[in-house]
Amino acid sequence: MEDATAALRPASRVTTWLALLLFAVIAVGGLYHVKWAPYYAKSFVAAAHHSIGASILTGAEAGPASVGWRAGLAYSAQYLKAIWQALVLGLALGAGAQVLLPRSGLVRFFGGRAASIRAAGLAVPSMMCTCCAAPVAVGLLESESGAAATLVYWLANPVLNPATLIFIGFVLGWQWTALRLVIGIPLVFVLGHAAASRLPRGVGLALPPPPAAPSRTFLLEWALSFGRLAVRLVPEYVVIVFALGALRAWLFPVMTPAIGHAPWIAPVLAAVGTLFVIPTAGEVPIIQVLQHFGLGATGAAALLITLPAVSLPSLAMLGRVLPLRMLAVLGIGTFLFGLIAAGLASALGL
Predict the structure, then answer these.
(1) Does residue 3 lie within any of the structural domains?
(2) Half-sphere exposure of 240 (CA within 13 A, CB side)
């Protein structure tokens, strides 16, 4: 019996390392194809033309298309075309966190004093939008990773995205990049820990039982986990994206100088930016176009922070594992940080 058990141990180690190798290939290869290579090329476009394209919200117009199902379909098609590859990658990584990575290793990495710093460092090269990072966060949480560090990872992906920071500098001005960092860094860490603190001590998340150690069928296990995650998260996500696209003319006012400098514009845009969904760096052309039609600094600052940080679809995806009180902290906190950014922009005369 001892000989048989000893003979199985090397095979177990081999399959564990093969599972880790598969996850590394998915992560590095996927990020290179979906994020690193395209954004490297786009940075030269931003530097040369001081633009990264039309606004997904309004195109080149002062306001969005009229409310209706056609507007919803048009926005959904444009949005999903921009993010589908990153969404597939996010689902693949979230499923990989559940079945390919050792749960004990994830618990150690996302636990302890420096866990949030490590999580933010991991998020910087990931560069996901809030919705595409959500399946990864769900996978990590279901693997019993620390809630605070996982939420820091999730928030840091869109808020501290280095490519977006470069785009902001070339398109909007480097003072806006500085504002994003000054507000974004505390947003990531404060909201991540504040939301996690809403989980009472001794009460855990509603998580599935831990999977078995990787076996020779780990590829099938990963594929099945990918399918389960997609079925749970994607349908509701698509419906909410459609609804927001259909209603965006009610959410964003047609911009004029009078509206763009009105006292009420910053809180309205901070609230709308917290709910609305955009692809990675989508806030940059949105703000650029709206500024052209008269949006002032306070409204621009509110959108700069709230649009990328969270959205209604991404919060809905996290709602599969997080209680409502934690989601409320993330949403309300993002809105408040948007107001802080607006106040700072006004004080600095941006």
Answers:
(1) no
(2) 17
Which residue's structure tokens are 């003072």?
Answer: 175
Residue type for position 15: T
CB 105 within 8 A of CB 66: no
- What's this model's pTM, rounded to 2 decimal places? 0.91
| pLDDT tens for each residue of 271-324 | 999 999 999 999 999 999 999 999 999 999 999 999 999 999 999 999 999 999
- Name, in order, each residue with C-beta under 8 angstroms of 155's C-beta and a sequence gap of 6 or more: 123, 130, 187, 188, 191, 192, 309, 310, 330
The total number of structural domains that make up the chain: 1
Locate tokens 């709230």: which residue? 306
DSSP, collapsed to helix, strand or coil, labels residue 59 as strand
Q: Residue 1: inside a domain, yes or no?
A: no
- pLDDT tens, position by position, 259-274: 999 999 999 999 999 9
Nearest-angstrom CA–CA distance, 208 and 218? 18
Distance CA 183, CA 298 (A): 14
Q: First-to-last CA distance in the chain? A: 74
Residue 150 maps to a domain: yes
What Å distances lie between residue 77 and 12, 73, 74, 92, 245, CA to CA?
A: 44, 6, 5, 22, 10
Is residue 86 domain-resident? Answer: yes
Q: Could you tell me the residue range of the domain that residue 65 belongs to? A: 9-348
With contact defined as beta carbons under 8 Å apart, do 297 and 65 qualify?
A: no
Q: Is the dihedral of CA 191, 194, 198, 199 positive or negative?
A: positive
